[in-house]
Specification:
CATH superfamily of the largest domain: Spore Coat Polysaccharide Biosynthesis Protein SpsA, Chain A
Distance between the termini: 34 Å
Strand order of the largest sheet: 6-9-7-8-12
Radius of gyration: 25 Å
Structural class: alpha/beta
Number of strands: 29
Oligomer: single chain
CATH class of the largest domain: Alpha Beta
Number of domains: 3
Shape: globular
Length: about 475
């Protein structure tokens, strides 16, 4: 039996969930609830671990490769990773995955899954029922029955039964983000569904349709896969050809043009969580309607969401308010105006504020790195040697007994484990070698960790002997 390959697209910045979501740590990699909850990306992976699914393919940007690896490792999931040199929307990402998988298996069938949605219900059963249609060459796009008139979603209008492929339907037309009155008219007329962003098709089908409607992009993406480099199991697409591909979503590049398009209604609870109000809506409130995450105290407050990431936050007498507190930025907004957070981010970008790019903990590099896989010499004399190393997200470094006398963490947060001890060390913290055995230093940050290594009075110093980076 053909197993369906989840294709999870990890693009986008999620600016409407600022200050939690930022360019270097976007929405999909943030935890949905408290500190112990899964991230949006991890939840997407978990939803597709049933028997009908193969190991997933993940498409992400190069700057997020380490985060993807770390979060997959937490789930103990094996996946194929494709790294884009730059964002070109979902069309080129899907096409690159198709080219890669078709080189190995001509029968590959994808279900394309956004990495940042919240879905509850029997998604696997609905997808499995559509497999025959996908194998027959149909491009199945999944629709959600509207709960209200939403101008921020696209709509798919039912065109009637598709003979031989129950429960798949024909598509009458697509309606892209209509104003509220038009959305209400669509819903009242019946047969209109929210476009969920989930689709399903054979890899050969999407490649053939791309060759028909945009042959130039199809050729460019094929070349980017041919010229790609494999680094630590991840496929890094060639930037020259990939960068010239048309930056379009699959919907406009293929779905809205092809006669192979079909609709499958989904009976699930779905939310794209496009605002803090939506985040509040998917959370479980207390008896006062409050959603409290972190160290929070409330008094006389109702229907309010407070998220505290690094300190105590107290609120008194608030109603219908969002409070998001991070170490370097605080957001306070009325519940019904959280869609306007994007405008705040736009203003910050105009003044080139770093708060749009990264969180405070992710400080810029303090030392130049010569090589990411070995400790690199920075300075030495007759009395000391100084080296530096970078540990990628989700990876570890071995500090051998008798190597550098101490390691200083200059960026990030790491966990050190010796023969009979272990500890977690933040920026400014030190790790000393142990004569009893090797020490494993694991990066716990969402960005590369950097360490300085110091050895005193060691004339036999060799940069590569200070330590080695190993798979985490």
């Amino acid at each position: 039996m053909t197993r369906i390959t989840p294709l999870i697209i990890c693009g986008g910045n999620g600016t409407r969930l600022w200050p939690l979501s930022r360019k270097h740590s976007p929405k999909q990699f943030q935890r949905i609830g408290g500190a112990d909850s899964l991230t949006f990306f991890q939840s997407a992976v978990q939803r597709h671990r049933a028997a009908i699914f193969a190991n997933p393919v993940i498409v992400t940007g190069r700057i997020h490769e380490g985060t993807v690896r770390k979060q997959l490792q937490e789930l103990q999931v094996n996946a194929r990773i494709i790294c884009e040199p730059m964002g070109r929307n979902t069309g080129p990402a899907v096409l690159a995955a198709a080219e890669m998988m078709l080189a190995e298996d001509q029968d590959t069938v994808f279900v394309v899954v956004p990495a940042d949605h919240v879905i509850e219900g029997d998604l696997a059963g609905s997808i499995g029922a559509c497999l025959p249609a996908a194998q027959a060459g149909q491009i199945v796009t999944f629709g959600i029955e509207p709960r209200f008139a939403e101008s921020g979603f696209g709509y798919i209008v039912d065109g009637g039964p598709l003979e031989g492929f129950d429960p798949v339907r024909r598509v009458d037309r697509f309606v892209e983000k209509p104003p509220v009155p038009a959305a209400e008219a669509l819903i009242n007329a019946g047969g209109a569904y929210w476009a969920s962003g989930i689709s399903m098709f054979a890899a050969t089908t999407i490649r053939d349709e791309y060759r028909k409607y945009d042959p130039k992009t199809a050729d460019l993406i094929a070349q980017s896969v041919i010229d790609a480099k494999t680094e630590e199991g991840a496929l890094h697409l060639a930037s020259a050809s990939f960068g010239m591909a048309a930056s379009l979503p699959t919907e406009s590049a293929v779905f809205e043009q092809t006669d192979r398009i079909a609709l499958a209604p989904l009976d699930v609870t779905w939310d794209d969580v496009g605002s803090w109000k939506a985040m509040y809506g998917i959370s479980r409130p207390d008896a006062d309607g409050n959603v409290l995450q972190g160290d929070v105290i409330t008094l006389g407050s109702h229907n309010t969401m407070v998220r505290a990431d690094s300190r105590l936050v107290s609120v008194v007498g608030l109603s219908d308010i969002i409070v998001i507190d991070t170490p370097d930025a605080l957001l306070v907004a009325r519940m019904d105006q959280t869609q306007d957070v994007k405008a705040i981010v736009d203003e910050l970008k105009k003044t080139k504020r770093s708060e749009t790019e990264r969180h405070q903990e992710a400080k810029p590099a303090m030392v130049p790195m010569v090589d990411q896989k070995t400790v690199s010499a920075l300075a030495q004399s007759d009395n000391y040697q100084v080296g530096a190393a970078e540990i990628k997200v989700g990876r570890a470094m071995t500090l051998e007994s008798g190597d550098a006398r101490q390691a200083l963490v200059v960026r990030g947060r790491v966990h050190a484990s010796g023969p009979e001890w272990q500890k977690t060390v933040g920026e400014g913290g030190r790790i000393y070698t142990d004569p009893k055995g090797d020490i494993t230093i694991t990066n716990l940050s969402d960005e590369p960790a950097e360490l300085l290594f110091v050895t005193l009075a060691s004339p036999d110093f060799q940069p590569k002997s200070l330590g080695r980076v190993v798979n985490g």
